[in-house]
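[PROTEIN RECORD]
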Amino acid sequence: MRRNRETVLIRRPVWVELIPDGTRFELMPDTMAEITQALGSSITLYVEGRLVRLQGDDADAIGKTPPVAPSLAADASTDDVRALVWETLKTCYDPEIPVDIVELGLVYVCDVLPLHDDQLRVSIKMTLTAPGCGMGESIAQEVRQKLLRLPRVEEVDVEVVFDPPWSRSMMSEAAELSLGL
């Protein structure tokens, strides 16, 4: 059974990443594609027989609206920022799995630490569903970029680790239900 997919036209030159190895290449205008997954802020496209990942900031290349950076009240506490960090992590997806990295159990550590002048440093330790996943650096980069857009976050360190190794038992019940497990 084929899912309903939205057909889109590439409107301008745009860089994408090949799934599953992360190789970057440029799509040219007037190329047809199908959206297979649009979760968080990245979009998985099926184009010319391949799956590719389009960053949300480039959503206008297919006629979609790029995501808006989250905001906080001026008097937001460090705990408010920490909560926003976790909300933001829930907008990061493996391009082949329709479940966010938090529900998949990929985030092992999330520290929000003071720096200077009320600025904060976020330190993330995360893993991948498979050690050889070619999209690992891409997912880590998406986490970095999104967290650096948050108010008061000045530094972000994302470390991909493989100890302990990820297993399906680390997924939340919601993730298991979503994947039909």
The chain has two domains: 6-62, 78-178. DSSP finds three helices and nine strands in the chain.
